[in-house]
Amino acid sequence: MEILLQQIINGLVQGSVYALVALGYTMVYGILGLINFAHGEVVMIGAMLALSALTALLGLGAPPALALPLSLVLAMAGCMALGYGIERIAYRPLRHAPRLAPLITAIGLSIVLQNLAMMIWGREYHSFPQLIANTPHNFGGAIINDIQIIIFVMALAIMAGLMVVVHRTRLGRAMRAVAENQHAAQLMGVDINRVISLTFILGSALAAVAGLMVSANYGLAHYYMGFLLGLKAFTAAVLGGIGNLRGAMLGGLLLGLIESLGAGYIGDLTGGFMGSNYQDVFAFFVLIAVLVFRPSGLLGERIAERA
Amino acid sequence: MKFNSKSKSLLAALAIALLLLPFVTEALLGRGWVRIVDFAMLYIMLALGLNIVVGLAGLLDLGYIAFFAVGAYCYALTGSPHLALAFPMAFPDGVHLSFWIVLPLAALVAGGFGVLLGAPTLRLRGDYLAIVTLGFGEIIRIFLNNLNAPINLTNGPQGIGRIDPVSVASVPLNITQNIFGIALPSVHLYFYLFLACTVLVILVSQRLERSRIGRAWMAIREDEIAAGAMGINTRNLKLLAFAMGAMFGGASGALFAGFQGFVSPESFSLMESIMVLCMVVLGGMGNIAGVILGGVLLAVLPEVLRHGVVPLQQALFGKTVVDPESLRMLLFGGALIVMMLYRPAGLLPSRVRRRELDTDEAAEKV
Amino acid sequence: MNHTTPLLQLSSICKQFGGLSALSDVSLHIRRGEIYGLIGPNGAGKTTLFNVITGLYQPGAGEFQFNGARYQACKPHVLAKAGIARTFQNIRLFANLTALENVMIGRHLRTRAGVFGALLRNRATRDEERAITGRARELLRYVGIEKPAQTLAKHLSYGEQRRLEIARALATDPLLLALDEPAAGMNATETASLKTLLQTIRASGITVLLIEHDVKLIMGLCDRVAVLDYGKKIAEGVPEQVRKDPAVIAAYLGQETPRPQAGEGQG
Which of A214, A294, B85, C12 is an S-S bond match for C62, by CB 3.0 to 4.6 Å? Predict the structure, then answer.
């Protein structure tokens, strides 16, 4: 029973991070109808930037309470610039090209980002400095520590904030209008390019937060971390119904739970044939299963075969 | 195909040049380079297979190397002592099937994986296929890395060694053979085998492209809705393209395993998939000659980087600042971006374009 | 020609997009061998109706009979096989293939060679290829664009592209040829020769369904006309009679001749 509870806690914390990344995928998809393949790398760059800033600030003698938010802000700023750049390089010039073209440029960009990161930060794992006491709390027999609580609460707060932005602000209204019908939105005086840029920027800011959270949660950051994380977050977005913000949040949390519970019980389920080293395959099978049985996702509209 | 006498003699010259290539390469650059050329041929085969999927049918497959891996492991398991570890009772010496039996099997198994993967995704929009194949490429590696316990199927990260060499007419290709009084080392023998296979693959690609099926694939690539309205069963034909591509990948994988004598999961990373995709994009999607050019350029590039860039950096900075591997990947990524932005048709103008230019000129003369 | 059973019979077809009713309860029939016109203001549901009978949209309710068989929810390729061929309002050619190849692709449906045929290139396949090429050239000549056979579709002139779409559709050996605004963007001369072409096509025994904004073309060409407005059929009959229908006049709101180029949105 404690194990189950522990898996649920771990799953929800990890899932809230997936949800943040999935939001980035889903927002871009909602507006452009494209998968932003480079999004996972933005998360990685966010983590790396935050880590570098943090190390530097701590080295200068800044107190952790100042260094942590400051490095987060720096990472967000860096990622926002990166997101803007990705849109300008990979997507805008190809907005009317065949669908394959922007996919390929985005792939190219993520390869470039990954290798640049490797040149800058090296091949090794970077460990996240111990900043707060990170006290473990006993919660019905399961352990939940401070960092996990902070991650979960922060993720929920950011998601709530995003919903406010999308549903209550001019920008949000413009985003929804562009997602609904680009042409009509343009006729109504919406600056499409600006809205698309801002969508990428917003998604990248979330990615930076997620990057910091992942590295804080695992205590590690690595130039290759963006790939699998991106793949899983995309799965989360599809699970919830891609293009649907609430869906991305739900999908993220669910995928976190599935992964955590799956990894915890796969040994028992397969009679010891498969162990927790198969944790990373769950997302993939979830993705396939969703595409087979409900391609529109849990909360999405029918999108199959829309051309 | 009809050749006039000029193109006939050109073709003959090309054939002779190719036959002499291993000897010339060995004389000029050393035997190690013949091996590099062999690998280049394998990559060209892979790229031609992927070209059917990406270039002709317009389906973005980002995990193509997974099918290569499936084929390679098919032969690694059935052409080595390895299975003796897992099933000592059934196979005390392992399984040693003939390569020529395993080759079609490997293609079929890889094609089967292609169908399994393509069936759920191909009715959806193209980017789903891209991401599912991307995931599949990674999943295959996870399985290959972990299927060494509790039953040792893949031997995990250590990989499977002592794979039987390919034999042609009971002549094993892993040792120097004297043929018509000429001593042919193993790398030369494999070169001729791969050359024959590559020519076959080129022929198959070309025939497919200029057929009813090939035209239907191109129609789907150009406009799926219009293709459907013209009576093309788009889903089945996409599945066919995807499975055919996977089969080419699987067959090349079996050749790879026989040639190398050893397979391990690290040969099948995402970067390999990207490299093959790069070959297709660089040469011009859907254009066979372009894909071959792309394959040659990219297969030789890492060696050039290794032999050129490292000494250059040593000379300039006294140390290696950028390792050739990441420089290679940077170039690949950059090439994908630049090609799509500035030259989406690839380095070589395609057949149709050229033909069109010809007729335009002819029309002007009249 | 059998004039007793209609070639196409629509029964109470409905189609909704979200809350918007694009087609409500549309019933009509098209007789074999006639040219049937479909007119209506922008957004009246004409293209939606096309998309339903060619399988691009599934009808929300209702069904249709074509050539004696019932269809409710079908893939486009099934309906193409049944004998419905179409063109698109915003031309959808295979842009990077030649004009000839575009028409050859239209023959896909009526030919058989598979992968093995392609690889072995046996006698049957070669004969079939020759027949495909021959028929495609014939059709290019038929619609009057045999010259640019080797030109990429995207480099053809607008009028040529429209004709190429018709040739490609004819290549599927249709019983019903459905044309979505074939005269859009054409000048008077081009429209006149299009009219002749359509009459030739009808004379060869193919039934024609025509969406058009050019009322003059419709009136001069069609045997019968139906008028859609807000997704409903408001009139049907011979052109003379429809022209005088008060409901039709009201729908067009005095717009005697709607601009021929006017594009139409999703409706």
Answer: C12
Residues of chain B found within 8 Å of residue A124, distances taken between Cβ atoms: none
The answer to whether residue A141 sits within a structural domain is: no
| pLDDT tens digits, C135-178 | 999 999 999 998 999 999 999 999 999 999 999 999 999 999 99
Cβ contacts of C139 on chain B, cutoff 8 Å: none
| Domain residue limits at A245 | 2-132+146-293
Residue B345 CB-density burial (10 A; 0-12 exposed, 13-18 middle, 19+ buried): middle
Give the CA distances from residue C163 to residues C102, C143, C168, in Å, rounded to whole numbers and listed in that order: 12, 6, 9
Question: Distance from B135 to chain C by nearest Cα, in Å?
Answer: 29
A48-57, A162-171, B227-236, C14-23: least confidently modelled range: C14-23
Domains recognised in chain C with CATH numbers? 1-34+47-74 (3.40.50.300), 225-257 (no CATH)
The closest alpha carbon to A43, from A78, A70, A16, belongs to A78
What confidence tier does B350 reach under pLDDT thresholds 50, 70, 90? low
Residues sharing a CB contact under 8 Å with residue A66, sequence separation 6 or more, in sequence order = A57
User: Residue B146 above 60 pLDDT?
Assistant: yes
Chains that touch C (3 or more CB pairs under 8 A): B
What total number of domains does chain A contain?
1
Check B222 against C101: CB less than 8 A apart.
no
Element (H, E) at C78: helix C76-82
Q: A267 φ, ψ to 5°? A: -60, -50
Q: Between chains, do C119 and B208 touch, taking CB under 8 Å as contact? A: yes
Spatial distance between the Cα atoms of C247 and A19, rounded to a whole number of angstroms: 55
Shortest distance between the Cα of C255 and any Cα of chain B, in A, equals 33
Residue A195 lies in a domain: yes
Contact between chains at B334 and A108 (C-beta distance less than 8 A):
yes
pLDDT band at B360 (very low <50, low <70, confident <90, very high): very low
What letter would DSSP give residue C255?
-
| pLDDT score, position B131 | 83
Q: Provide the chain C residues 78-117 that lie in CB contact (below 8 A) with chain B.
A: 80-81, 85-86, 88, 92-98, 101, 104-109, 111-115, 117
Chain B, 231-260: which have a CB under 8 Å from a chain C CB? 231-234, 240, 244
User: Which A residues in the span 59-78 are in contact with B, Cβ-Cβ below 8 Å?
Assistant: none
- Phi-psi map region of C209: left, alpha, beta (phi>0 left; psi -120 to 50 alpha): beta
C73 Cβ under 8 Å from any chain B Cβ: no
Residues C202-232 have pLDDT tens digits of 999 999 999 988 888 888 899 999 999 989 9
Q: CA of B141 to nearest chain C CA: how many angstroms apart?
A: 31
Q: For chain B, how big is the Rg over CA atoms in Å?
A: 22
Chain C residues 148-187 with CB within 8 Å of chain B: 150-152, 155, 168-169, 171-172
In a domain, A156, yes or no: yes
In total, chain C counts a number of residues equal to 267
B171-201 tens-digit pLDDT: 888 878 777 878 888 888 999 999 999 999 9
CATH number at residue A179: 1.10.3470
pLDDT of residue A306: 35
Complex ipTM tops 0.95: no
pLDDT of C265 > 60? The answer is no
Task: Give B225's contacts in chain C (Cβ within 8 Å).
Answer: 56, 76, 92
A302 belongs to a structural domain:
no
Is the pLDDT confidence value at C259 over 50?
no
pLDDT of amino acid C35: 95
Sequence spans of domains, chain B: 29-269
Contacts of B124 in chain A (CB under 8 A): 291, 295, 303-305
